[in-house]
Amino acid sequence: xxxxxxxxxxxxxxxxxxxxxxxxxxxxxxxxxxxxxxxxxxxxxxxxxxxxxxxxxxxxxxxxxxxxxxxxxxxxxxxxxxxxxxxxxxxxxxxxxxxxxxxxxxxxxxxxxxxxxxxxxxxxxxxxxxxxxxxxxxxxxxxxxxxxxxxxxxxxx
Amino acid sequence: xxxxxxxxxxxxxxxxxxxxxxxxxxxxxxxxxxxxxxxxxxxxxxxxxxxxxxxxxxxxxxxxxxxxxxxxxxxxxxxxxxxxxxxxxxxxxxxxxxxxxxxxxxxxxxxxxxxxxxxxxxxxxxxxxxxxxxxxxxxxxxxxxxxxxxxxxxxxxxxxxxxxxxxxxxxxxxxxxxxxxxxxxxxxxxxxxxxxxxxxxxxxxxxxxxxxxxxxxxxxxxxxxxxxxxxxxxxxxxxxxxxxxxxxxxxxxxxxxxxxxxxxxxxxxxxxxxxxxxxxxxxxxxxxxxxxxxxxxxxxxxxxxxxxxxxxxxxxxxxxxxxxxxxxxxxxxxxxxxxxxxxxxxxxxxxxxxxxxxxxxxxxxxxxxxxxxxxxxxxxxxxxxxxxxxxxxxxxxxxxxxxxxxxxxxxxxxxxxxxxxxxxxxxxxxxxxxxxxx
Lengths: 157, 438
What we know:
The complex is a heterodimer.
Chain A: H1 8-40, H2 56-71, E1 77-82, H3 87-100, E2 105-107, E3 120-124, E4 133-138, E5 142-147, H4 152-156
Parallel strand pairs in A: 1-2, 1-3
Antiparallel strand pairs in A: 3-5, 4-5
Chain B: H1 2-22, H2 29-53, H3 60-84, H4 98-115, H5 122-138, H6 143-146, H7 161-173, H8 178-202, H9 207-227, H10 235-250, H11 255-271, H12 275-292, H13 297-324, H14 341-352, H15 367-372, H16 377-396, H17 401-429
C-alpha cells in the first residue's frame, strides 16, 4: 500500500483511476435506477409534476387531447379544470395540456389569468355543471365545453 | 433525424469560415469540428433573430436564399483562410485509446435514451418544447404569445436559441417530433467530449489522464443526462460554452483564441439567461489577461472586438424585443436579502448531494484550490464567478427560495461540473500546462 503512494505520480494515478471507477459505478447505478423507474412507472395520476413523457397518465392525457384538437380551433382560448390532485399539482397538469395543444391559448389552472373570458372549458378527469357551458366533446377521460357568453353578439357588433 | 443531419450540415457550412480563424488547421480536428458547429449555430441564431425582427416568417423562400448566401460567404472565407494560414504552432491531437472508446459508449447510451424519450427533460414540456411548437406554428419567435400574462411561467425573457432551433427542426421535418428534438442534446454531449479531449491535450495532461479524464467526463454526463432527465434541455449549451471558453482562457493570447472565446461566450449568452452573465465573466477575464500582456491599444481593441462583439450582437437582438414587449421578469433579481443564506446554503449542500449526481459535484468545492493554481486560474475564476452569480440570484429572487433552490441547483451544477472536472483531472495529473495563465 505504501509503495503505491511512494511517488506523487503514482498517487495521482491512483486518484485518477479511483475517480474513473467511481464515475463508472455511478453511471451504471444511475442507468439501473432509470431503467427501474421506466419499467415500474411509479408516477401517479394525481402527481403530474412527476410525470415523464413515457408515463401512463401522459399517454392517457395525450389520447384525450388528440381528440380535443379536432373540437377546439387554433387560436381559441381555453380554461382548464382537472382532477385529481392538489392545486399546485393540477397546475402542472394544465402545462401538459398546453404542451399537447399548441396554437391554443391555454390558461393554466390556478394560474395568473384565472377568471379571464375563455372560448372553451376543458374538464379532464372531472365534469363541470354550469348552464353557460355547452358540451362539444365528451370522452371517458374528459369533456370540452363551449362557453356561452352573455351579450357576445352585441359586443361583436 | 433528417432534419438534425440537414441542419447540422447547414450549421457546419455557416460556421466553417469563422472557425477557420478561431481554430486553425494546427488544432485538433475534434476542437475544429466543435468550434465550427458552435460558430455556425451562433450565425444561424443571429439570422433567425434578425429575420424575425424584420417581420419575415421562417420558410424555405425567406431563409433559403439567406442561408445559401451566408454559407457561400463562409465557404469562401474558409478557402481564403486555408490558402493564407500560417503553419500550425503545434498539433494538440492525441491518438485514440480506451478513454475514447468509453466516451463513445457513454454517448451512445445517452443517445439511445434520448431518442426513446426515456430522459426527456420536464422543462422541455413546461417551457422549451411548448415554445418550440408555438414558434413553428408562428414561423418565428411569437413575442405576442410570450407577452401573455398566463405564459409568465414560460420565462418569456429567456433567449430563444433553443426553441428557435426546435421550431426550425419541426418546419424542416414537417412536424414536431420529440425524439428528433432530444437528439440535439446528444449532439451537444458529443461536442462537449470533443472540446474536453482537446482541452486535456492543451493542458499537457499525461496519456493516462487524457484517457481517464475523457472517460470520467463522458460517464458523468451520461449518468446525469439520463438520471436527471436532461434531454431537450438548453443547459448543455451553457456547459459547452464554459468548457469551450476554458481553452482560450488558459492558452497564450492570440487572434484565434480571441475568436474562440468570442464564439463560446456568445453561445452562452444566446442559450439561456444565465449565459448572459457567463459571457460577461468570460470576456472580462479574457480581456484582463489580454491587457496584462500589454499588446498596445490597437491590438487590444481588435482582441476586444473579436472576443466581445458576437456576444454584444446576440445581446442586442435579445434585449430589443424584451424591452419592446415588456417581457423582462424582475422578480428573479430585484429583492436581495442576506437572510436568505440560512435557507439557501443548506439547500445548496443538499443539491451537491443530489442522488442523480452521486457526489460528483463535490468537485466544485475544489474551485478555491484551482483558482490558487496559476495554470488554471482564469478558467477556474470564471466557474467561481458563475457559481457566485447563481448564489446571488438565489438571494435576490422574490419567489419561494427553498423550492427555487431545490428545483434548479442540481441542474445549475451541470453548467460548471464538466469544466471543473477537467481542470481537476489536469491538476491531479500535475502535468505541465500549455501556457502559464498570468
